[in-house]
UniProtKB/TrEMBL annotation:
Pfam families: DLH. This is Dienelactone hydrolase. Keywords: Hydrolase. It comes from the Bacteria. SUPFAM superfamilies: alpha/beta-Hydrolases. GO terms for molecular function: hydrolase activity. Residues 11-215 form the Dienelactone hydrolase domain. It comes from Candidatus Promineifilum breve.
Length: 222
C-alpha cells in the first residue's frame, strides 16, 4: 500500500449501538455518496455492523445518468482503486471492528468495484455482495463467498456478462449465491430511484444480505 498525504479514505462511518461489530465497506453507485448510501450504512449499523463508505466523487453527487457519467469521468486526487484499498485498511484498523475479515457491498458501479476487490490477493475480505454489478476475471485469489442481487430486465448488465461472472467464480471454486428478482430493473434496491425502486424486491435482497453478512462475518461470541 503506497503512502499518501491524502485525507482519510472513509468519509462516512456508522457504529452499531453496541459500539463494536464486524466491518462492512459500502461502495456507492455512480450517483456518488448520497443520502441513500449513508442511510444504508446506518441500517447496517442497526444490524450490528460497523459500516464505512468512501466518497469516490469527493463530495459531488448526481441525480441523473447524464450527471453521473460526467462525475465518473472527472479527474480525482487518486485512482479509485487506491481509495478503496486505503478504505479497507482504515476500516480494518478501526477499534470498533471485530473479527479477522470485513465484508464489502457495492451497488452497480460499486458492485463492479466490490468484485474487483474480491479478485485482489491479500485483502481481509470475508464476504462480497454485489447489487446489479458484474465483473468477470480471475477469482483464484479470493477467499470471500459472493452474494449477488440482479434485476430481471437490466439494460446495464447483460445476460452474457452475468454468465461470464458465474463462470469466473466457478472456475476459481468460489462459493456464489445469485438471485434474480422478477419484474425489476437496474437500481431496484435504491429508494431514491423512484422510477425503478421495488420495495418488495429491495427488502428481500436486504434480508438476504444481512443474513449472509452475519453468517460470513459475525464471530460466534457476538
Amino acid at each position: 500500500m503506497p503512502k499518501t498525504n491524502l485525507s482519510p479514505a472513509i468519509t462516512y462511518l456508522a457504529i452499531p449501538p453496541s459500539g463494536q461489530g464486524p466491518g462492512v465497506l459500502v461502495v456507492h453507485a455512480w450517483w456518488g455518496l448520497n443520502d441513500f448510501f449513508r442511510g444504508l450504512c446506518d441500517r447496517l449499523a442497526g444490524e450490528g455492523f460497523v459500516a464505512a463508505a468512501p466518497d469516490l466523487y469527493e463530495g459531488r453527487v448526481a441525480t441523473t445518468p447524464e450527471e453521473a457519467k460526467r462525475l465518473r469521468g472527472l479527474p480525482k486526487r487518486e485512482p479509485t482503486n487506491q481509495t478503496l484499498l486505503r478504505a479497507i485498511v482504515e476500516l480494518r484498523a478501526n477499534p470498533a471492528v471485530v473479527g479477522p475479515n470485513i465484508g464489502v457491498i457495492g451497488f452497480s458501479m460499486g458492485g463492479h468495484w466490490a468484485l474487483w476487490l474480491a479478485q485482489q490477493p491479500g485483502l481481509p475480505l470475508g464476504a462480497t455482495v454485489t447489487y446489479y454489478g458484474a465483473r468477470a476475471g480471475d477469482y483464484g485469489n479470493s477467499q470471500a463467498p459472493c452474494l449477488g442481487h440482479f434485476a430481471e430486465t437490466d439494460e446495464w448488465v447483460s445476460p452474457a456478462s452475468l454468465k461470464k461472472l458465474r463462470k469466473s467464480l466457478e472456475a476459481a471454486g468460489r462459493v456464489a449465491d445469485f438471485h434474480t428478482y422478477p419484474g425489476t430493473g437496474h437500481w431496484f434496491a435504491e429508494t431514491d430511484r423512484t422510477d425503478v425502486y421495488d420495495s418488495q424486491a429491495a427488502e428481500l435482497a436486504w434480508s438476504r444480505t444481512v443474513a449472509f453478512l452475519r453468517r460470513q462475518l459475525r464471530p460466534p461470541e457476538l
